[in-house]
Design a protein that fits this description.
The structure is a homodimer of 393-residue chains.
Chain A: H1 5-16, H2 36-46, H3 54-67, E1 71-75, H4 78-88, E2 96-100, H5 105-113, E3 117-121, H6 132-142, E4 143-146, E5 149-152, E6 159-162, H7 174-184, E7 187-191, E8 199-200, E9 203-204, E10 211-215, E11 228-232, H8 235-244, E12 249-250, E13 257-258, H9 269-280, H10 282-300, E14 306-308, E15 315-316, E16 322-326, H11 331-343, E17 349-350, H12 370-378, E18 379-382
Parallel strand pairs in A: 2-3, 2-6, 6-7, 7-10
Antiparallel strand pairs in A: 1-11, 4-5, 8-9, 8-15, 10-11, 12-13, 14-16, 16-18, 17-18
Bound molecules: pyridoxal-5'-phosphate (PLP) (2 copies).
Residues 77-79, 82, 103-104, 106-107, 165, 191, 193-194, 215, 217, 228 of chain A line the site of one pyridoxal-5'-phosphate (PLP).
Chain lengths: 393, 393
């Protein structure tokens, strides 16, 4: 490739921020250096590995305490959490739900599980997440509010909810989004799958939505193997979330009665045990992740054609996945970088294919998506494991 | 209660078959006495706790080998397994699916997740599962086959599948059921959630359906904390099942493309590790469960008003949950027994409330359900853990 000088320099500086003695550096691997084994062993020794057990209760309490959201309901993964958040926010068959096109597939799939239709919105460079100003202008043009509901004038369908996603741990600008939601009678659900440990104006993400979803997949800041949680400040929604994720069984000393179609979305106790141990270490993990981001930032600033994604000014990010942005969208350059980095054993990847480009979502409504289209061609993620920040502390 | 003599005798004999030194005897608790520790610790030590890892692959291979079904796909639980079985068998929105009314809620819920309608069928005393002869007569009356599909003449809807469930581990009579499926162009899906280790005419359950579902919930013969598996002898369905349960992502060195709406139904590696260790012990577990069933049978035979459920003559059962049947349905007697046993710390429970009696399924189609209605009032399950069979070997 011509003009690859800057890119080659970038590969060098990224490499310089990473340990030199490893053949392969993963994008994000978990770190188990706390009470993981002790808690898991306790599950095996007592036989409490499954759907009830003290670690599930404790993990829920610990999550509520950590995030400052009143209630946390542990579930089997982040996708399940999103599904239930949408359902409990009242999303019904044939509703539309606004989501970023620039997101992981789970956000769109969860909308589909409700029989609803994802409606794709653009992102902004500042946060990589939903652009509230662009959204506001768009809604002004295409919607009307009737009898307390927001309708898409073009499709005739109700727009029931919006799901901002805190991309790679960087919080979206929530204040203007909440204002939009209030004005248009749209429910706010935060996809906080990537943002445990991230704060918007001093408050933990997940506090702003009617309900919010966390993920503890193996690649996240902390992991339970597979797992997720629903967060909500609404007591009765929290009760409902617990009920419907545990087959909607009515408590009784022996009878099996269920009062509605429920789900088996429970998190097993053994996975919750892992989560309790991981959560104890989260503050330490975040310090190390920030140290790694810092050293990336310092060296990447030296390179001309790119920038390093830093937290928005109103936020404190968990720096879940570090991201480099080409100054201009350029898929050739992006792929050159990806090839070079991966060839050197530095695992890196582009962001997701935009949702509106996937065959099953191609016909769904969308606004102008210029920024998202650019991001797809200009962003790459680089190794971000906690362990990589330990030498950088 | 009048005439409680026999029942009181029953409580005594059940108690005599159980260890006398325990305050509380659970209905079914897991047993970890193999390589559980070692395998789970390996996951923690290597960091492979999540969605990929060697134990997932190995558990799938071990399950295929054990059951004799060509392919096993590990998933997050039995409910998810059933959902995907139905989907892959071609169950679509507004189809009807025949299921026993006498089953656990998951069978009916999974049908609902497909947007399809459960159509309730009766059970037979021999197996506690679907009665093929009654079903055959019923289908002759209410269906017609047009262009290779079976239609319910009354509702006009297509009947796409039938899901027999092997209740408490006792296999249903599969041969006549398969004949019905062939004649009426109905797909057979086995709900084998309760029947790992159970054989029909020498072949493991799960070999007869187009696809079948297993569960490894904490109360099952073996457990993974939470978990399940899809079994199928069809190679291409197996590939499809793996694909759609792992977000339908197209393999690529870095790109995120998904070709359809998929699910996050993966079993985490740490849960699969547990499964591998448990499966190694299954043969031993089955011997102990059979020993326990044997000692129950011997003492319960002495009591007049009841019988002990034994495996059908064509089957070898895993005796997952032992069951006592009152000779005649009698809810007062049933509840008397339940009270007495539970009061003594001998955990026992009735079977499930029949599906067609639950509010969300009350309006759905059903045949005459006399046997199921009786079973609800005459059956109770008594403690069945592996460990209880250890003193009885
Ligand atoms: C933005 C986003 N939403 C949802 C999810 C779904 O979480 P899970 O993988 O735990 O189902 C993820 C993570 O995978 C994610 O990154
Ligand atoms: C008959 C039947 N079907 C399905 C399931 C669902 O399995 P799981 O609990 O693993 O989702 C179970 C067990 O709970 C069951 O007994």
């Amino acid at each position: 490739m011509r003009d690859s000088g800057d890119l080659d320099k970038l590969v060098k500086v990224v490499s310089s921020a990473l340990p030199g003695d490893q053949k392969f550096i993963a994008l994000h691997e978990p770190r188990f250096c706390g009470n993981e084994w002790e808690y898991v062993k306790e599950c095996l020794d007592t036989g409490w590995v499954s759907s009830v057990g003290k670690f599930v209760d404790r993990f829920e309490q610990d999550l509520a305490e950590y995030t400052g959201v009143n209630n946390a309901i542990a579930v089997v993964n982040g996708t399940a959490a999103l599904h239930i958040c949408l359902k409990l926010a009242g999303v019904e068959q044939n509703d539309e739900v606004l989501i970023p096109s620039f997101t992981f597939i789970a956000t769109a799939n969860a909308v589909s599980y409700c029989g609803a239709i994802p409606h794709f919105a653009d992102s902004e460079m500042r946060t990589l997440g939903l652009d509230p100003f662009k959204l506001s202008n768009y809604l002004r043009d295409i919607t009307e509010v009737k009898r307390g509901h927001c309708y898409n004038k073009i499709t005739g369908r109700r727009i029931k909810a919006v799901v901002p996603m805190h991309t790679f741990g960087h919080p979206v600008d929530l204040d203007p989004l909440m204002e939009i939601c209030a004005n248009y009678h749209i429910e706010l659900i935060e996809d906080a799958a990537e943002s445990l440990g991230s704060y918007y104006k001093g408050q933990h993400t997940g506090n702003f939505g009617k309900l919010s979803a966390l993920s503890f997949n193996g690649n996240k800041v902390i992991t339970t193997g597979g797992g997720g949680a629903i967060l909500t400040n609404d007591e009765s929604l929290a009760k409902f979330a617990k009920h419907i994720t545990t087959t909607a069984k009515i408590p009784h000393k022996w009878a099996f009665n269920h009062d509605q179609i429920g789900f088996n979305y429970r998190l097993p106790n053994i996975n919750a045990a892992l989560g309790c141990a991981q959560l104890e270490q989260l503050e330490q993990f975040l310090i190390k992740k920030r140290a790694l981001a810092d050293s990336y930032r310092k060296v990447i600033t030296e390179v001309d054609c790119v920038s390093f994604m830093v937290e928005p000014e109103f936020a404190k990010s968990n720096y879940w996945l570090n991201a480099i942005l080409l100054n201009k969208p350029d898929i050739t350059k992006r792929d050159y970088l990806l090839e070079k980095l991966n060839d050197q054993g530095i695992m890196s990847r582009p962001a997701w294919t935009l949702m509106h480009k996937l065959p099953m979502f191609a016909e769904y409504p969308k606004m102008d998506l210029t920024i998202a289209e650019g991001l797809e061609m200009q962003l790459i993620n680089i190794p971000s494991s906690v362990v990589l920040g330990e030498t950088n502390e």
